[in-house]
Amino acid sequence: MAVLDITKDLPTLFKRQVQATPDAIALEDETTTYTYTQLDQEVEALASRLRTYGVSRDTLVGVLLPRSAHYVIACLAALRAGGAFLVLELAYPADLLADVIEDASPAVIITHKSETDKIKAPVPVIALDGPVAETNGDAKEPSPLPADDDLDRLAFVSYSSGTTGKPKGIANPHRAPVLSYDLRFAVQDVQPGDRVACNVFFIWEMLRPLLRGATVVIVPDETSYDPAALVDLLAAKKVTETLMTPTLLATVLSRYPRFGTRVPDLRIIWLNGEVVTTDLARKAIKILPNARLLNCYSACETHEIACGDIRDVVDNDSIYCPVGPSIVPSHTYVLNEDGKEVETGTSGELFIGGPLLAREYINLPETTAKAFVPNTFDSTPGARMYRTGDLARKLPSGALEITGRVGAMIKLRGYSVVPAKVESDICQYLAVNQCVVTAYGDGLDRQLVAYVVPDEPSSDRPSVVINESGHSPSARRALDNHLAQYMIPALWVALDQLPTNEVSGKVDMKNLPSPRSSSPNGSEQSAGKDPIGLNDIAAIWEAVLKVSKSLIKAEDNFFDLGGHSLSLADLSSKLSRRFGFRVPIPRLAENTTLSGHLETVRAVRDGHAEEVQANLPAVLLSDATLDEDIKPTNTAITSIAKADTVLLTGVTGFLGAFLLNDLIENTSAKIICLVRFSDPEQDDQAGGVARIRRNLLDMGLWRDSILDRLEILPGNLSRPRLGLGPEEFESIAARVQVIVHAAATVNLVYPYAALRGANVGGTREILRLAAKGGATVQYISTNGVLPPSGEKGWPETTILDIEDVPKKLLDGYGQTKWVAEQLVLKAGERGLPVKIHRCGTISGHSETGSANAWDLLTALIVESIQLGYAPAVEGWRAEMTPVNFVSKSIVHLATQTQADQTMFHLGDPTPVDTRSVFEDLKELGYETQPLPWDEWVALWFEKRGSAKGGDGSFTVDILRSGMPTVEFLRDIVVLDNALTRPFRAVVERPKVDSLLLETYTRHWFARGWLPRAPSRQNALNRSKAVSVKGPLSGQVAVVTGASSGIGAAVAAALAKKGCAVALGARRLDALESTKRKVEAHGVKCILRSTDVTSKTQVEALVQAASEELGPVDILVACAGVMYFTMMANTQMDEWERTVDVNCKGLLHALSSTVPGMLSRGRGHVVAISSDAGRKVFPGLGVYSASKFFVEATLQALRLETAGAGLRVTSIQPGNTSTDLLGMSTDAEAVKKFGEPSGAKILDPSDVANSIVYALTQPEHVSVNEILVEPRDEPI
Predict the structure, then answer these.
(1) Which of 606, 630, 654 is the last residue of a domain?
(2) Domain shared by 670 and 814, yes or no
(3) N or C: which end of the chain has fewer CB within 10 A?
(4) What count of Cα atoms within 13 Å lies in the side-chain half-sphere of residue 649?
(5) Where is this region: Disordered (predicted)?
(6) Running DSSP on this structure, what letter comes out for residue 146?
(7) Per the confidence metrics, is the pTM higher than 0.90?
């Protein structure tokens, strides 16, 4: 059913809407607002003037105006006067404008005074902003108005962009837009109160909302393609609907990853003008969950052809999204070369018939005849169909899919290349946001060139590195497995953004810069092997000056080529973003030639390295002096668990990602993340979120709930006040109670001078910030501040003397971290609470395998497996400290306010010999033969390093960039942790064994670094050998709290006795580790994420156990919490948590299992109580009360079910090494009652053994209670 009266013309339909909603807002631009009545009055007045110029049926009225209210008034007035409007774009060059006016012969042109000089033809002109109508023609007697049902008369004429030959004037009658709008209203209607922003395809969009009572919000020309300005306008104007090209939307989403929250009123987005990629669709759906995304396909000659909701048509297996079902299926034809319709699913050329077609191309009868051909499928006299030139196919779902352009394939040395396929793969497999692929050159010199807009790199989407000749070997390697060799572009050009046509909004292929296969004059000789060359600087000059870099010579002067002071500032910004360090404007002004700017950039990077290195002892002494103005007020140390706000640096790095995750999981604080930008601004926050999200996604850590706790602080460690303004610096200082400073520039090749800005200067500014507000600083350091240690590790008290630093610390990274430590220690001496955490070599996550892609040891192991040979180096030890252990230890130690020491060591004190590593790998199916180091290196270069066999391998690239020496492998720095261990005892260090290596190799395989997954065959054989029929064989146990500590130990102990186990805990990643240990005994095991405070989750765990393993015979309730608290300190949150977990959690477990046990007449309930359930301990009052509750509950259950076949056991452990010891935040209670006595405490396995004892007694024997304690700590 029609929404509009499709028998009437556009001015009649508008007039009816004026009568229906006279006082509603019809039109808004930057300066003016019109109600429907006011707009109607303006239209009527101008229409009357137009009729005096002889405007009547099919008379054209030229409109040469910016997108504004005047534009809409002019078009409506032309229609009401009985004529049609002619689109004259302000972006037209003078010659083109003259040609269009001559071709179309308008009766009058409506414009502004500022544009009248552009009109050279003798045509009457009305300047709407003039005080009186201005004309250069004679007035005529008005003609009679045409009938309002005359839908065959012209409505408007618009000219094609003229990319091929002469521009064509497309003449559309009223019938086309009237029917078009009605069909679109059936897809998505608009109503009074809706606010529709009109920008791209303005003439197509501006009238539609005015026929239904909505408000047209006009987007100015200069705003349409400025993402920042466009988003600001959409938000400020509370726009509910708009249309964008896919290129524009992709640009907006790239810059504003939280676009949906910026424009909460936006409910409808129409996409048109280009195909929509599946990647863009998925991204848009995620970022705009509450908006309807409509993919519309149209042409100026046909109006709408097909339209559909992207959510209904997106197909993850396709590169592009279908455009939805045909608007008028009976007039949509997909034909083969013989003009016959093809079968569903087959591609052919798309033809469109029906009543929405344009009338003609004015004054081009032959062109019209070629494009609008007789419709052999329609018996209506004179029926036509339009040849779109697009390839399409109809899908079984009814949707139409555009598959390309007729003749769009590139012919290259006998091959046919589809650019869309190449563009899609480049965006998928490289760090590229947008891409256009085209051909360059002629004949045998014809090559593919890729124009790319870079994206943030990740492990599976590496950067496109373009060398001086315009080639990218790294990109070729990344694409080698996905594209045929002839389809991989030979030349690459990086752009800040793809040029777009000012009229259509599509990618402007004509304005893509010409690629060059040679570098600017002098680049090869002057650049040497330095990664920054003249070609890099010339490319940025090109972007700033709009001068092709092929014309730029080394001796050219920036200002001679059109540069000025503002463009020099733009150059400074672009250079800083490109190279990752600030390039100051004054330095660029010193020598403004191209070669001079190259020298400036290199000098800034190196920090005058030679001069600094020559005076290194003096520089170290000076840099290690803490500024006098950093004077903290004496303040107490703050536990990170008590902090309201934490500042975290380094969050886009490997360790930083896990620190953020653990801070989110283990504190309730707001986490302010300092994210590096060359020139920080508040507008960088969206970019900061995107970088953090991308990093955490790569590590498998991201979930959207993190955003609730996250705050982005754009900054720069190398800048004074971290790049913040004075007020913002003071504001952050006042808010933050704890700073975790993990950021550093890590490079073992760069000299001290190149790293001092971020590593030394950044630490100094962090201390300055902390001193202002008295924040506690947790500084993340490295074992690199110490020299090689030999067999025995360095104790925590070791600090290298300054005179030994240049001699014993040979890399700039270790030297800068040593100076930074000195600054932290001196701040501590002045009263600032500080802690230093020295890390060793950080390896992947022990449970997920998530790896640091730049780790040298990983590269050596992976490449050894690839070769089948491993380096045989005497004394080479593998220090592999899993990142989750390091992160959890830092967060836990940051709660240990009672610890007197400042320095903590987190490296592995006993690194394993690499021979045992390769032996363990052999058990996993990766057999290698030992080979002396020099021979191994030679073989590697032959087979991998300099051969195609290694191309595309990330680990190959690491070793190509710097093969270590045998001395480097032998001389590792070992950190003894005797003083640290008591304070982080609750965080268990994973062992470097075959189980850990299996986790790592599985992850390496998943990332494509290894040719095959680890084999579990040997391990399974061992499991079968030891999996004898145990005393618990055939039984099923449910264990809560199974992710660590006693719960994990119990699960393994039960499996060893033959019991199938269902594991429940909140942390699935930790449960996976427990599950692997259980399955190593050859028993079945399942896991479920289970919070015991949720009855529903506990019931789901038990139900899953029953369905997948069998009826539950054993319940072991291990989940629990323990907090040291003083009763006088009223720690209500911790008390309530104690009751919820220890008491309610037990009841949920009992209610889910006991009824089934009783119905079967057998079962065993075991619950972890405590010796605090027998005797109240000071500092543990509420905890003791919860365990008295456990004891009472179990006693009642035991008495009430006697004779029913149920056994009930209470396990009462004393002091045990578990996570419970590190939960407390009441420093007073911990200090007074929680200090270790020095006695050897229980291991979780000790408790597990007691449970196995109770479970394996004869059926008639019930072990009711077991009190198990450290020998030297009896109650």
Answers:
(1) 606
(2) yes
(3) N
(4) 29
(5) 504-529
(6) P
(7) no
